[in-house]
Specification:
- By secondary structure, this protein is mainly alpha-helical.
- The chain has three domains: 4-137, no CATH class; 143-235, no CATH class; 254-362, no CATH class.
- The protein is built from 13 helices and six strands.
- It has helices spanning 55-64, 94-111, 119-137, 143-150, 155-168, 178-186, 201-208, 212-221, 228-235, 237-242, 326-335, 346-351, 353-356, and strands spanning 4-6, 8-11, 39-41, 50-52, 309-314, 317-322.
- The strands form three sheets. The protein has a two-stranded antiparallel ribbon with strand order 1-4.
- Strand 5 and strand 6 form a beta hairpin.
- Helix 4 (143-150) packs across helix 9 (228-235).
Length: 362
């Protein structure tokens, strides 16, 4: 239940515990501070910069008129931010503060019908705070999480650097940051410290070849306040399918593709219990004389042998390679314990299809 809203005007310093000497141990060596700090707020009589709900007056009004419903005059914390309100003190996100203020305004309008007070002043203050919070939040609060879902290790740091550049150039909070994102992938030095963010030649290539619908999905995710894990869950369709969620919107790769391996440096279990070849992007020195399943070809058009396997010739001997859906391959590569981790995704596979396509020897 929301009791009042005000602005933080100050945060007290950390207070260290007072220690007593222990005759047996001497002076204490372990130092610590109190868990909480004093926080001052702006709520004062007159409610010009914050307010408290008049619940005592509301109770008297409810007693005088039993036809009124108590729930209509109580501001409850938004359900989606229940966890943030479950502690004595907790940092509330911009979206959480916005949702809470909207709830407060709605309840105050109903309270104004049964309790007299300076509620117009309070509602004007709420309106101003909502405007300030929208500016602080920005139109793309999930930019860092979207870049993380794309595969970058330092997505949030890149987003912060981009926001700093936009601020120094005098652009407003509504400016589209994705124009600058494109520049960063062209030249990482477009933002301070960009060379240290891991945007190498590989990631620039993946970004150049990223389908337009995948870009639009990233832009959509950046509009929401999401964690990196949440953004990854929505961005990678194979993750949603694993937990039984099917997307109804257009997907970037609605048709699973075949893949053939050209080297044998790593092996993963196949759907039939056997093993496939390596997931390497370069063909073997001998090449493939008759590849029967190319990257990008539909599964239902792949000429397969027993148990969905494909036959090809290498080194004068016939061998079998499994044709597997792209998502199946991605999940099993990610599950492999590797250091550093292999950033395999639908996007990286699309970007390297020309390199992974089997070639016949001349």
């Amino acid at each position: 239940m929301l009791v009042g809203v005000g602005r933080v005007t100050g945060v007290g310093a950390a207070v260290e515990y007072r220690y007593k000497k222990n005759p047996e141990r001497g002076d204490p060596r372990l130092r610590s501070v109190l868990w909480e700090r004093n926080v001052s707020h702006s709520i004062r009589p007159g409610f010009e910069n914050g307010f408290i709900f008049p619940y005592a007056e509301v109770m008297r009004a409810l007693t005088a008129d039993p036809s009124l419903s108590p729930e209509d005059y109580v501001a409850f914390a938004p359900d989606e931010y229940f966890a943030q309100y479950s502690y004595a003190s907790e940092l509330l996100s911009h979206d959480g503060a916005i949702a809470s203020l909207i709830t407060c305004a709605s309840v105050l309008r109903r309270i104004a019908r049964v309790v007299t007070g300076q509620w117009d002043t309070v509602l004007s203050w709420i309106d101003g705070e909502l405007n300030r919070l929208w500016k602080a939040r920005g139109a793309f609060p999930g930019l860092g999480s979207a870049l993380t879902a794309f595969g970058l290790k330092h997505g949030s740091l890149i987003a912060h650097a981009i926001a700093s550049v936009l601020e120094t150039t005098g652009l407003t909070w509504t400016e589209d940051p994705w124009k600058l994102v494109d520049k960063v992938f062209e030249d990482p030095s477009a933002v301070p410290g960009g060379a240290d963010f891991g945007i190498d030649q590989h990631w620039r290539k993946v970004w150049r070849r990223l389908p337009s619908e995948r870009r639009e999905l990233l832009k959509l995710l950046s509009r929401f306040t999401l964690t990196g894990t949440q953004a990854e869950r929505f961005y990678h369709s194979e993750t949603l399918e694993r937990i039984g969620i099917s997307l109804t919107t257009q997907r970037s790769s609605p048709i699973p593709t075949c893949s053939t391996s050209a080297t044998a440096t790593a092996r993963i279990p196949s759907p039939s219990g056997s093993s496939t070849g390596a997931l390497s992007g370069s063909p073997s020195p001998g090449g493939l004389s008759r590849p029967t399943a190319e990257l990008g070809r539909r599964i239902d058009r792949c000429p397969t042998g027993p148990r969905g396997r494909d036959r090809y010739t290498r080194g004068g001997r016939q061998r079998w390679a499994h044709a597997a859906p792209r998502g199946w391959v991605i999940e099993r590569v990610r599950a492999r314990p590797m250091e550093p981790a292999c950033p395999l995704s639908e996007d990286t596979l699309l970007a390297s299809e020309d390199e992974s396509r089997p070639r016949s020897p001349r």
